[in-house]
Amino acid sequence: MYERVRAFIAVDIEDPGVISRIAAIRDAFVATGAPMKPVEDHNLHITLRFLGNIPLSMADDLRRVIEEAEFEPFRVTLRGVGAFPSPTRPRVLWIGVSEGAEVLQRIYEVIERGVRRLGFRAERERFVPHVTIARLKGSRNLWRVVKLLEEYRDVEVGSITVRCVRLKQSILQRSGPVYRTLREVCRG
Questions:
Q1: Domains defined for the chain, CATH in brackets
Q2: Per the residue annotation, which of 49, 79, 130, 166 is the catalytic one?
Q3: CA-CA-CA-CA torsion for 49, 185, 21, 39, nearest 10 degrees?
Q4: Which residue among 56, 69, 165, 172 has the highest number of C-beta atoms inside a 10 angstrom radius?
Q5: What is the pLDDT of residues 115-171, one digit of tens each?
Q6: Which pTM was predicted?
């Protein structure tokens, strides 16, 4: 039996200053009293491609797919808070990407072609680079969340330099997911 792991390809948010600004924004949403599961500081990332449960033996093939993206270190500016499916019906709260979004889009397209070659189904949703900060678990105090989304719509969060794209394992636990890097491609 082959070991299977829940996996995704992502850019980690590692800058302590940016992490603390994201945490302050996330905590403001938690303070609304709306039921939600906040993303922990050490789990903040930009997902490039969710893969689902994969055989661990695919890790090297997936690293080669990431290498095909041929990126140089680049800046990503995090700006504005939004929600999926919409700011008036929020289920997932996120921080958006302004500068660097086009580079992330290009890397995503290369990865998408590569994983399709490996037999993965096409993504259903359009790629929107973002950092998930919380998932709502109910509608109590939702109006407070909607109001705060309006306030933070254009908030400047900060910039990071992206040097690494990683294949991550998501280990689901009662306390929340634990992410582990399986493979990485770093530049510069």
A1: 4-186 (3.90.1140.10)
A2: 130
A3: 40
A4: 165
A5: 999 999 999 889 999 999 999 999 999 999 999 999 999 999 999 999 999 999 999
A6: 0.95
